[in-house]
Amino acid sequence: MEDNNEFINCPLRRALNALGGKWNLIIIKIIGTGELRFGQIKREIPDISEKVLIEKLKVLISYDIVVRKDFKEVPPKVSYRLSETGIKALKIVNEIELFGSYLKVR
To answer: I want to staple 20 with a disulfide (CB 3.0 to 4.6 A). Which of 16, 25, 32, 73 is the partner?
Structure first.
């Protein structure tokens, strides 16, 4: 049996936790190489609720895939961009998207 720490620290599991789910890859793709405000991201993904977008951005921030920049203004102004790790994730997203273009739905 595998040691529990190895199980928890498995790189594949960490990657799936960070990138898995319905929205994370799409959010990474939308942010891309730019810096976007929350409203800009939301407009690009109209079928995601604000609550879910906030939750998913927090997850991506916790894995250091997305960086949140707070401008400390009133009213609050915040932007999001990909970190270096996020840029690596974007390459994976682009490859998955390419793979998706080869798939046929029957």
So the answer is: 16
